[in-house]
Amino acid sequence: MSTDWIDLNRSFVPHRPADERETAAFQSYFRAREHGPLDWPRLLEHGRVVVLGEAGSGKTCEFQAQTNRLRESGRTAFFLRVEQLADTGVEGALDPSDLHALRAWRSGDQPATLFLDAVEEARLSKHTQFETALRSLAGFLGDAVARCSIVLSSRITGWHADDADIVSRLLGAGPGARPGEPHPDLPEGLAVVELAALNTTQIRQLADQETDDPDAFLDAIEQRDAWDFAGRPYDVLGLLRYWTTHGALGSLTEIIEDDVARKLREDNPNRHHRAPLTPEKARQGAEALAAASVLSRRLTFAATGAVAADGTLDPEAVLAEWKPDEVRALLERPVFDEAAFERVRFHHRHVSEYLAAGWLKRLLDAGAPRQAVAGLLFRPSHGRTEVVPDALAPVAAWLAGKESWVRKRLMAVDPDVLLEHGDPSAIPPEERAILLKRLMEHHRFRPGLTPTAQLHRLADPSLGPAVAEMLRDPELSADQKELLLRLVAIGRLPGASTEAAKLAADRTQPEGVRRLAVEAVAMAGGR
Predict the structure, then answer these.
(1) Under a CB-based contact definition with an 8 Å cutoff, are residues 302 and 233 in contact?
(2) Contacts of residue 475, Cβ cutoff 8 Å, sequence gap at least 6
(3) Residue ranges of the domains in the chain?
(4) CA 119, CA 33: separation in Å to the nearest integer?
(5) Could you tell me the pTM of the whole model?
(6) Which of 81, 248, 311, 515 has the fewest CB atoms below 10 angstroms from its CB?
(7) pLDDT tens string 420-441
(8) Sign of the alpha-carbon torsion through 208, 210, 213, 214
(9) Domain 12-195: which CATH class?
(10) Whole-angstrom Cα distance, residue 288 to residue 282?
């Protein structure tokens, strides 16, 4: 797997509080059409910029690459780590040749760009180290700071509300914007932006470099509905790693398991040395936090050392036997990202649901009574009727893939949960026909809204005869027929194509049923 930087032409969006992000993204889309994208050339026209991004979003690689690109174009640029600035000053943060070049630039009158990487890493040892680093830099630069553009990077959780004031107070406003129309997403003074998620074109660029068959890789992402796992370079490289190792993306369970295992590892040896966590302990901690989040219906955790606000969980209370540095190390793993100021949350909600199911499975394996777990997942309603709370339905579905008794109980109580959530491919093929029959009997599903990816996961060639038998039932509603026909088409089930053809030719059937029947015959083929 290549580790060379690939120019993905990354774009940026303004940093906004969580509740304003959808509006901000909408505004940025139309601004980009009128003013051009918010990209590196635009950012580097600004005197003071902070680039925020989740772990694994590519901040460090981008900073190093932009430093090299500016130098190759004849401009002066330097890359420094904020942690080293705090610990050793400028003299220790640069190699001798760069230090000599910076001193020479300082004595002249030309502009320069400094990339200061990883604000949050400076705070691993002491909260005030960020301010210490900027004081050291300001002291070294002196008056030359006014002709120096400065770009800082930080994980979003590592950027605090008062940091903008520290930058302005110690480094000033910097040089004014270069000539040209200012971009509306770049305010005067310090601009705080976030790296945007990768788009399909950028994902393909990475795939082109890493596999001989990028089309097959992208098709596999589409078929497995794995786009949520391809928003960052780290994510895509992980999927590519799985793809090149296994020759396929595998089931949703396998993808998530591989994704979680990678993101709970600490690949930075400096961080690991300061707060070592074994993979097993990191997994147990993540599962406990996931369970606390799902069961309490609170999606965010207070950052380590911050006061837990209303509606926010205190991770140190959940992991009461852990040291604070261990909790901090866990929350900085890429399985988490920011939710708002001094709060973190799981990067994907379905990952937290998967991990919460793992926590329940761990309890069961340790001897917890089934009745206790069942009491969490199945609640009485209107006397003897059982229901699965909406918030726990995904957890129940994931656990059902590992525990047959949960699966059987869901089939009896609420079979829709097994189709709408979790990984239907984890259900043994011989039980999927039973599930389909229960879905027909239950008749609470919304077939047009059932995700295509879930039908992909449910489909198995062995289901053809069972689906054909169901399609012959004259009592089936149009909705039921549509669900089964979608399954025939998506799963390419030739064993049911004859019955689909009969429905396609039956003029008494609703238009939607006949249309799906034609599609099913075309996709499934058969005799």
Answers:
(1) no
(2) none
(3) 12-195, 200-263, 269-351, 429-527
(4) 32
(5) 0.64
(6) 311
(7) 899 999 999 999 999 999 988 8
(8) negative
(9) alpha beta
(10) 10
